[in-house]
Specification:
The protein has about 210 residues and is of the alpha+beta class. The protein has 9 helices and 5 strands, in the order E-H-E-E-H-E-E-H-H-H-H-H-H-H.
Protein backbone atom coordinates (compact mmCIF):
# COMPACT_ATOMS: atom_id res chain seq x y z
CA UNK A 1 0.00 0.00 0.00
CA UNK A 2 1.12 3.53 -0.71
CA UNK A 3 0.18 6.53 1.40
CA UNK A 4 -0.12 10.03 0.04
CA UNK A 5 0.12 12.75 2.64
CA UNK A 6 -2.51 15.45 2.63
CA UNK A 7 -1.04 17.24 5.61
CA UNK A 8 1.88 16.54 7.97
CA UNK A 9 2.62 18.63 11.06
CA UNK A 10 5.46 18.73 13.59
CA UNK A 11 5.20 17.27 17.10
CA UNK A 12 3.27 19.61 19.36
CA UNK A 13 1.75 21.65 16.54
CA UNK A 14 -1.78 20.49 17.43
CA UNK A 15 -1.31 21.21 21.13
CA UNK A 16 -0.28 19.07 24.13
CA UNK A 17 -3.20 16.63 23.94
CA UNK A 18 -3.49 15.83 20.24
CA UNK A 19 0.22 16.57 19.76
CA UNK A 20 0.63 16.33 15.99
CA UNK A 21 0.64 13.87 13.14
CA UNK A 22 -0.58 13.56 9.60
CA UNK A 23 -3.70 13.26 7.50
CA UNK A 24 -3.03 10.56 4.94
CA UNK A 25 -4.74 9.05 1.94
CA UNK A 26 -4.05 5.30 1.82
CA UNK A 27 -5.59 3.99 -1.38
CA UNK A 28 -9.31 4.74 -0.91
CA UNK A 29 -9.14 5.33 2.85
CA UNK A 30 -8.50 8.51 4.82
CA UNK A 31 -6.10 7.73 7.68
CA UNK A 32 -5.15 9.92 10.63
CA UNK A 33 -1.68 9.44 12.13
CA UNK A 34 -1.16 10.84 15.63
CA UNK A 35 2.07 11.20 17.59
CA UNK A 36 2.11 10.05 21.20
CA UNK A 37 4.75 10.51 23.94
CA UNK A 38 4.78 7.37 26.06
CA UNK A 39 5.65 8.96 29.45
CA UNK A 40 2.89 11.53 28.98
CA UNK A 41 0.39 8.85 27.94
CA UNK A 42 1.30 6.50 30.78
CA UNK A 43 0.92 9.21 33.44
CA UNK A 44 -2.55 10.21 32.19
CA UNK A 45 -3.58 6.60 31.71
CA UNK A 46 -2.65 5.72 35.29
CA UNK A 47 -4.53 8.77 36.56
CA UNK A 48 -7.60 7.85 34.52
CA UNK A 49 -7.57 4.30 35.86
CA UNK A 50 -7.70 5.82 39.35
CA UNK A 51 -10.68 7.98 38.36
CA UNK A 52 -8.73 11.21 37.88
CA UNK A 53 -9.01 13.16 34.64
CA UNK A 54 -9.03 16.71 33.33
CA UNK A 55 -10.83 18.45 30.47
CA UNK A 56 -9.21 20.93 28.08
CA UNK A 57 -10.05 23.32 25.28
CA UNK A 58 -8.82 21.76 22.06
CA UNK A 59 -9.16 22.94 18.47
CA UNK A 60 -11.07 20.37 16.45
CA UNK A 61 -12.86 18.99 19.53
CA UNK A 62 -15.98 21.13 20.13
CA UNK A 63 -16.67 19.38 23.45
CA UNK A 64 -13.08 19.65 24.63
CA UNK A 65 -10.48 16.95 25.08
CA UNK A 66 -10.62 14.78 28.20
CA UNK A 67 -7.39 13.22 29.41
CA UNK A 68 -9.04 9.79 29.83
CA UNK A 69 -9.30 9.64 26.03
CA UNK A 70 -5.62 8.63 26.00
CA UNK A 71 -6.55 5.54 28.02
CA UNK A 72 -9.47 4.95 25.64
CA UNK A 73 -7.03 4.88 22.72
CA UNK A 74 -4.98 2.25 24.54
CA UNK A 75 -8.09 0.18 25.23
CA UNK A 76 -9.36 -0.03 21.67
CA UNK A 77 -6.20 0.04 19.60
CA UNK A 78 -5.13 -2.98 17.60
CA UNK A 79 -1.40 -3.45 17.95
CA UNK A 80 0.46 -3.98 14.68
CA UNK A 81 3.97 -3.97 16.13
CA UNK A 82 5.13 -3.86 19.75
CA UNK A 83 8.63 -5.36 19.97
CA UNK A 84 9.26 -4.06 23.51
CA UNK A 85 5.82 -4.99 24.88
CA UNK A 86 5.09 -1.45 26.04
CA UNK A 87 1.62 -1.31 24.46
CA UNK A 88 0.64 -4.66 25.90
CA UNK A 89 1.71 -3.38 29.31
CA UNK A 90 -0.37 -0.21 28.92
CA UNK A 91 -3.42 -2.21 27.89
CA UNK A 92 -3.41 -3.72 31.36
CA UNK A 93 -4.49 -0.29 32.64
CA UNK A 94 -7.61 -0.31 30.47
CA UNK A 95 -8.97 -3.83 30.95
CA UNK A 96 -11.47 -4.16 32.47
CA UNK A 97 -13.07 -0.73 32.20
CA UNK A 98 -12.03 1.02 35.45
CA UNK A 99 -14.97 1.48 37.80
CA UNK A 100 -13.32 4.49 39.45
CA UNK A 101 -13.15 6.24 36.07
CA UNK A 102 -16.74 5.27 35.27
CA UNK A 103 -17.98 6.86 38.49
CA UNK A 104 -15.90 10.02 37.98
CA UNK A 105 -17.15 10.53 34.42
CA UNK A 106 -20.78 10.08 35.43
CA UNK A 107 -20.47 12.39 38.45
CA UNK A 108 -18.70 15.15 36.55
CA UNK A 109 -20.94 15.22 33.50
CA UNK A 110 -24.24 14.80 35.32
CA UNK A 111 -23.25 17.78 37.47
CA UNK A 112 -22.18 19.81 34.43
CA UNK A 113 -25.35 18.97 32.49
CA UNK A 114 -27.51 20.10 35.41
CA UNK A 115 -25.45 23.25 35.90
CA UNK A 116 -25.79 24.11 32.21
CA UNK A 117 -29.56 23.76 32.43
CA UNK A 118 -29.69 25.98 35.52
CA UNK A 119 -27.96 28.73 33.53
CA UNK A 120 -30.25 28.21 30.55
CA UNK A 121 -33.23 28.57 32.90
CA UNK A 122 -32.10 32.16 33.42
CA UNK A 123 -31.99 32.84 29.69
CA UNK A 124 -34.91 34.13 27.65
CA UNK A 125 -34.79 31.41 24.99
CA UNK A 126 -34.80 32.77 21.47
CA UNK A 127 -32.98 36.00 22.34
CA UNK A 128 -29.40 34.72 22.44
CA UNK A 129 -29.10 31.98 19.80
CA UNK A 130 -25.31 31.72 19.82
CA UNK A 131 -25.19 31.06 23.56
CA UNK A 132 -28.28 28.86 23.55
CA UNK A 133 -26.96 26.61 20.77
CA UNK A 134 -23.57 26.36 22.46
CA UNK A 135 -25.13 25.55 25.82
CA UNK A 136 -27.40 22.83 24.44
CA UNK A 137 -24.53 21.38 22.45
CA UNK A 138 -22.52 21.18 25.65
CA UNK A 139 -25.47 19.57 27.43
CA UNK A 140 -25.76 16.93 24.71
CA UNK A 141 -22.02 16.23 24.97
CA UNK A 142 -22.41 15.69 28.72
CA UNK A 143 -25.29 13.26 28.17
CA UNK A 144 -23.20 11.28 25.69
CA UNK A 145 -20.35 11.03 28.19
CA UNK A 146 -22.74 9.65 30.80
CA UNK A 147 -24.15 7.10 28.36
CA UNK A 148 -20.70 5.92 27.29
CA UNK A 149 -19.55 5.53 30.89
CA UNK A 150 -22.74 3.81 32.04
CA UNK A 151 -22.36 1.34 29.19
CA UNK A 152 -18.64 0.88 29.92
CA UNK A 153 -17.85 1.85 26.34
CA UNK A 154 -14.70 3.86 25.65
CA UNK A 155 -15.26 7.38 24.34
CA UNK A 156 -12.77 8.40 21.65
CA UNK A 157 -14.20 11.35 19.77
CA UNK A 158 -17.30 13.51 19.35
CA UNK A 159 -17.48 12.65 15.65
CA UNK A 160 -20.22 10.07 15.06
CA UNK A 161 -20.38 9.52 18.83
CA UNK A 162 -24.03 8.47 18.84
CA UNK A 163 -23.60 6.20 15.84
CA UNK A 164 -20.63 4.54 17.51
CA UNK A 165 -22.57 4.07 20.74
CA UNK A 166 -25.37 2.32 18.87
CA UNK A 167 -22.98 0.22 16.80
CA UNK A 168 -21.33 -1.03 20.00
CA UNK A 169 -24.63 -2.27 21.38
CA UNK A 170 -25.70 0.39 23.86
CA UNK A 171 -29.46 0.48 24.44
CA UNK A 172 -30.53 4.11 24.27
CA UNK A 173 -34.17 3.89 23.23
CA UNK A 174 -35.39 6.94 21.30
CA UNK A 175 -32.58 9.13 22.61
CA UNK A 176 -31.00 9.86 19.18
CA UNK A 177 -34.26 11.30 17.82
CA UNK A 178 -34.84 13.32 20.99
CA UNK A 179 -31.34 14.78 20.90
CA UNK A 180 -31.81 15.82 17.27
CA UNK A 181 -35.07 17.54 18.21
CA UNK A 182 -33.41 19.21 21.19
CA UNK A 183 -30.63 20.55 18.98
CA UNK A 184 -33.28 22.46 16.99
CA UNK A 185 -33.96 24.69 20.02
CA UNK A 186 -37.66 24.01 20.64
CA UNK A 187 -39.46 26.47 22.93
CA UNK A 188 -39.46 23.98 25.79
CA UNK A 189 -35.83 22.93 25.25
CA UNK A 190 -34.86 23.19 28.92
CA UNK A 191 -37.86 21.16 30.09
CA UNK A 192 -37.16 18.50 27.47
CA UNK A 193 -33.50 18.42 28.45
CA UNK A 194 -34.36 17.99 32.13
CA UNK A 195 -36.67 15.06 31.41
CA UNK A 196 -34.04 13.46 29.23
CA UNK A 197 -31.31 13.83 31.84
CA UNK A 198 -33.55 12.39 34.53
CA UNK A 199 -34.21 9.32 32.41
CA UNK A 200 -30.53 8.88 31.65
CA UNK A 201 -29.42 9.13 35.25
CA UNK A 202 -32.12 7.29 37.18
CA UNK A 203 -31.27 3.70 38.06
CA UNK A 204 -34.59 2.32 36.84
CA UNK A 205 -34.50 4.15 33.54
CA UNK A 206 -33.65 1.12 31.47
CA UNK A 207 -30.31 2.37 30.15
CA UNK A 208 -27.61 -0.27 29.78
Amino acid sequence: MRAQHRRVVAPGEWGPWINGGAWLQVEDAKVDLLYRQLPFVRQRAEQARAGIFSSHYQAGHPSGYHSFQLLAEIAVNQVLSDPTGVLDDLKGLAVPYPEALRSSIIDKFVWEANFQLEILDRTDLGTDPCYEMSALSRFISCVLQVLYARSRIWFLNEKRAMQSLLALGAEVGDLPQRLVHLSQLPEDAVAQARRLLTEVTEDAGGWS
